[in-house]
Amino acid sequence: SNFQIWKLQIMAKLWREKVLGMALGTDTCPITSLSIPGTTTTVPRAHRIIQDSISDALLLKTEMHTTTKDLFNALLSIHQTSNLASTFYIFQQLFNPAWSRGSAISEHITLLHTLEACLVRMKFMVDIRLLAFVLLNSLPKTPEWNMFTSSIINTVEDSKLTFDAVET
Questions:
Q1: Which branch of life, at top level (predicted)?
Q2: Which residues pair with residue 44 across a beta bridge?
């Protein structure tokens, strides 16, 4: 999504500028633009970098957040709130996957991990055994893959049947 791309880009920029800790709340002493030769403003650099990278609408919506950490957390909260429609479509993608031999199995597994991570961010935990069944069910219905599925469900102990166990 655009937000995920923005988040990665802004975190990389904050890291390059050595102020990522301000946004994450791990640094308590702000590095201000006073430390940049030729400037006189006292607005923390990290805060300014974030403000410069968001839309005017988001800037207005987040103007009350005066610390970099609060601003960054507010932006994360705005974009990562759970939404019933989004949650439904992510669950739909998770439960209706079908791996075709047109792509690598690793890409298919990555997709399932990504969908699960999206749900976790939206505060929906997915049982690891359920994910194992989703992965097994998404495999092609060929003799080769049917034998693989059968061997997994007949040899792995019930308590050890997890997504990771099936993946490996």
A1: Eukaryota
A2: 32
3-state secondary structure (DSSP) of residue 37: coil
Provide the greatest CA pair distance for the chain.
72
Q: Is 38 left (phi over 0), alpha (psi -120 to 50) or beta?
A: left
The three-class DSSP label of residue 44 is strand
Distance CA 137, CA 95 (A): 9
Q: What DSSP state is assigned to residue 36?
A: S
pLDDT (average), residues 58-84: 82
Residues 6+ away with beta carbon under 8 Å from 15? none
The pTM of this model reads 0.51
CA dist., res. 128 & res. 110, Å (int): 15
- By residue count, the chain amounts to 168
Q: What is the pLDDT of residues 109-128, one digit of tens each?
A: 888 988 898 888 777 888 98
Distances (CA, A) of 164 to 59, 80, 124, 161: 42, 26, 19, 8
Return the DSSP state at 32.
B
Q: First vs last Cα of the chain: how many Å apart? A: 29
How far, in Å, CA of 66 to CA of 107, rounded? 41
| Least confident piece of the model among 38-52, 53-67, 73-87 | 38-52
